[in-house]
User: What shape does this take?
Amino acid sequence: MQHSILKFACCSALMTGLAVGNVQAADNSFKETLALKELTLPSEILNYQADASKGEQLANQRCIACHGDAMLKMMATYPNLKGQKGAYLFKQLVQFKRGERTNPIMQAQASMLSETEMKDVALYYSQQTAADLNQ
Assistant: This one.
């Protein structure tokens, strides 16, 4: 499997267009952001068009127990994923799966996801608006 690293001098729009439906611009920005982070991935993963509806299903099955609003109100140390940049979330999941970032719970969760599923989940969360958890 051939891996490719895209190298760009600058990425001015990290995820521009994602929420407004400009998929091509968002996808290019996603690739540029990952290239800047020097994350090596197979081209089929880089070129995969993430699906937010699949991401929502996965998030509701695997992520909501710790990252849902109810748990976030009780556990302030757990990160709220809603509204985070898709490339950032994707990179974190990949690093957990590869063991480059350590947290036993997240490593176990990430190990059960393919890279395309990670991209779906990242897209879904990037399109969400964080709830006010102080109410």
